[in-house]
């Protein structure tokens, strides 16, 4: 995996994901609470990893960008002056582009590996990571394809495109309201990766279920989300902390 070979040293990192800004769902105050948490981060935090599905949907047309998350983006731009800021593409906001990069945020296609306290930690969104997520991986490939991007860019008025995208998210939650059937596979997959690649830990979101497990000195953490639980993961040289922020 590209993320693994490009690893960087870090003193301390904070990971959060799945705020789904733009969805009429979850805590209506979540953009503000996320900004408050980010503004209050300790000076020791060197890397802020936004781990996917920060926006319910994102697409950049040639002259138009969605009216979503403007308060958050302003806060991130401020933060990016003194820290490294990363955004991993999620299955909802896979089309992050130039207007995000212009604010000093680095966009990652798959994930990121940071060496914290001399040990490697892998951060990713989590969609398509387990073997049975075959359909997720195919959809991911299709949505990210040049043809799909071209169609979105050229065939639909941006207002209609947003209606379609936000409506699709709402409909998929109505059809599958609970955790997916394969939710237990994530932990097993992560531990298998840790052993194969000698990782200290794997951190991901996507399933909206906060969970931390430790096995033989290796750590699996799902951060939950910043939609309903408002939880984050902080990692320093001593380990990982799954924290609920109120
Ligand atoms: Mn997701």
Folded structure, characterized:
This protein is of the alpha/beta class. Helices cover 32% and strands 24% of the residues. The protein has a single domain (2-244), classed as Purple Acid Phosphatase, chain A, domain 2, CATH 3.60.21.10. It has eight helices and twelve strands. A six-stranded mixed β-sheet has the order 1-6-7-8-10-9. Helix 2 (30-39) runs parallel beside helix 3 (70-79). The model has no long low-confidence stretch (mean pLDDT 92). Manganese (II) ion binds at residues 52-53, 90-91, 125, 127, 206.
User: What is the tally of beta strands?
Assistant: 12
The main pleated sheet reads as:
6 strands, mixed
CATH architectural grouping: 4-Layer Sandwich
Q: Largest beta sheet: what is the strand line-up?
A: 1-6-7-8-10-9
Termini distance?
Answer: 35 Å
The third-level CATH topology is: Purple Acid Phosphatase, chain A, domain 2
Summed up:
The chain is an alpha/beta fold. It contains eight helices and twelve strands.
Sum up the structure in keywords:
246 residues, 6-stranded mixed sheet, alpha/beta, Purple Acid Phosphatase, chain A, domain 2, binds manganese (II) ion
Secondary structure topology:
Elements: H1 2-5, E1 8-10, E2 13-16, H2 30-39, E3 47-50, H3 70-79, E4 84-88, H4 98-101, E5 105-108, E6 111-116, E7 119-124, H5 134-143, H6 146-155, H7 158-175, H8 185-197, E8 201-204, E9 211-215, E10 218-222, E11 231-236, E12 239-244
Parallel strand pairs: 1-6, 2-3, 3-4, 4-5, 7-8, 8-10
Antiparallel strand pairs: 2-11, 6-7, 9-10, 11-12
Helix pairs in contact: 2-3
Bound molecules: manganese (II) ion.
The site of manganese (II) ion has 7 residues, from loops.
């Amino acid at each position: 995996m590209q993320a693994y070979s490009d690893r960087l040293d870090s003193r301390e990192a904070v990971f959060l994901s799945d705020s789904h800004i733009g969805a009429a769902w979850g805590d209506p105050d979540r953009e503000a609470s996320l900004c408050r948490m980010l503004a209050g981060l300790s000076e020791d935090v060197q890397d802020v990893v936004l781990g996917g599905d920060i926006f319910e949907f994102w697409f950049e047309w040639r002259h138009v960008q969605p009216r979503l998350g403007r308060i958050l983006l302003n806060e991130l731009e401020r933060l990016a002056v003194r820290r490294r800021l990363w955004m991993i593409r999620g299955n909802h906001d896979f089309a992050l582009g130039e207007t995000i990069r212009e604010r000093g945020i680095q966009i990652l296609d798959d994930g990121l590996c940071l060496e914290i306290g001399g040990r490697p930690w892998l951060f990713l969104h989590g969609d398509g990571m387990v073997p049975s997520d075959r359909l997720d991986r195919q959809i991911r490939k299709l949505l990210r394809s040049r043809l799909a991007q071209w169609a979105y860019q050229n065939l639909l008025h941006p207002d209609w495109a947003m209606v379609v995208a936000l409506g699709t998210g709402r409909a998929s939650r109505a059809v599958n309201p609970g955790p997916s059937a394969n939710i237990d596979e994530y932990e097993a997959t992560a531990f298998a990766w840790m052993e194969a690649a000698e990782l200290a830990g794997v951190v991901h979101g996507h399933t909206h279920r906060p969970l931390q497990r430790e096995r033989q000195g290796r750590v699996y953490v799902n951060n939950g989300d910043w939609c309903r639980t408002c939880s984050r993961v902080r990692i320093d040289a001593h380990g990982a902390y799954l924290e609920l922020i109120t």
